[in-house]
Amino acid sequence: PNGRIMKVDLKNPGREEWQEVVPQAGDMVLDAFQVIDTLVWVTSIRNVGNQISGYTKDGKAVDRIDVPGMT
Question: What phi, psi does 38 have (nearest 5°)?
Answer without folding.
Answer: -105, 5
